[in-house]
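Hi there, hope your week has been kind to you so far. Would you mind checking whether the tokens look sensible for this chain? I owe you a coffee for this, so here goes:
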Amino acid sequence: FDQHTPYHDKDVLDHTLAVVDNIEPKLNLRMSALLHDISKPDCFTLDTKGRGHFYGHHIKSSEKSEEILKRLGYDNDFIEDVKILIRYHYIKDIKNINTLEGLKKFINDVGVDRLNDMFELNIADIKGKANPDKFDDIEFIRKKCYDYLNSVNYNIKAD
């Protein structure tokens, strides 16, 4: 499926395979990488300049991953883990954490135990794109999350 966007030099399948190749071999991460863009074709729109957009694909992909993983017989905890990782893999949706309340909500929504995996999925997703060398936004958000958690004595470190 051609993405019609300058951010991607690959179609959805080749991008997905690149993300899987760039993620550590943990089942939840590999499954999240495999399914993270599963609903892109369902969300595709083309603007007047011929540029593709996939508004809400991360939310729809999260929902579709739940259906797929249930059919495959995975347990509810695993499904929830993958579903949340996919939901928050879209960096544009998470980089506007500019208030303490927003930061706390984000950490609560993702879950402290899932933060590193979520950041790793974001990095792998970027590595599968046309310009795979810009991780500043992710590292900024990671630092912001860990600085906050350590300020409340949670004692967490990035892997």
About this structure: The radius of gyration is 16 Å.
